[in-house]
């Protein structure tokens, strides 16, 4: 009986671990998975930025267009047509355009 209970508890633990890690992001510390992409600005306003991944960037995603909120980021004086490097933690590809959670940006 104790052996079955132990097996049951271990299975519950493993199942909980799989469910918690299923989305590929660390829930406790998302900044440990920061990535950087290079993109050209297509649209920019006081709140949002729409970019297209630069052809020479190491990553390639479909869709190529990505949006992010710039509220809370430094105002680098970027305008449409500028090439920027964007540091991000979350990449949501199930929307169009795709959305990232940007943590910083700078000119390339």
Strand content: 35-45%
* Helix/sheet category: alpha+beta
Strand arrangement within the widest β-sheet reads 1-2-3-5-4
Mean pLDDT equals: 75
Give the fraction of residues assigned to helices. Answer: 10-25%
How many strands in all?
Answer: 5
Topology order in helix (H) and strand (E) letters: HEEEEE
Report the sheet with the most strands, covering strand number, pairing sense and barrel closure.
Answer: 5 strands, mixed, barrel
Radius of gyration based on Cα positions = 19 Å
| Low-confidence spans | 8-30
Distance between the termini: 64 Å
Keywords:
1 helix, five-stranded mixed barrel, single chain, alpha+beta, 18% helix, 108 residues
Provide a compact summary of the structure:
The chain has 108 residues and is of the alpha+beta class. It contains one helix and five strands, in the order αβββββ.
């Amino acid at each position: 009986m104790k052996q079955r209970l132990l097996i049951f508890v271990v299975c519950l633990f493993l199942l909980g671990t799989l469910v918690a890690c299923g989305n590929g992001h660390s829930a406790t510390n998302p900044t440990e998975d920061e990535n950087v992409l290079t993109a050209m600005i297509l649209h920019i306003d006081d709140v949002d930025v729409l970019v297209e991944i630069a052809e020479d960037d190491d990553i390639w995603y479909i869709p190529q267009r990505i949006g992010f909120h710039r509220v809370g980021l430094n105002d680098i004086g970027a305008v449409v047509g500028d090439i920027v490097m964007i540091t991000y933690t979350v990449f949501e590809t199930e929307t169009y355009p795709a959305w990232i959670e940007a943590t910083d940006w700078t000119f390339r």
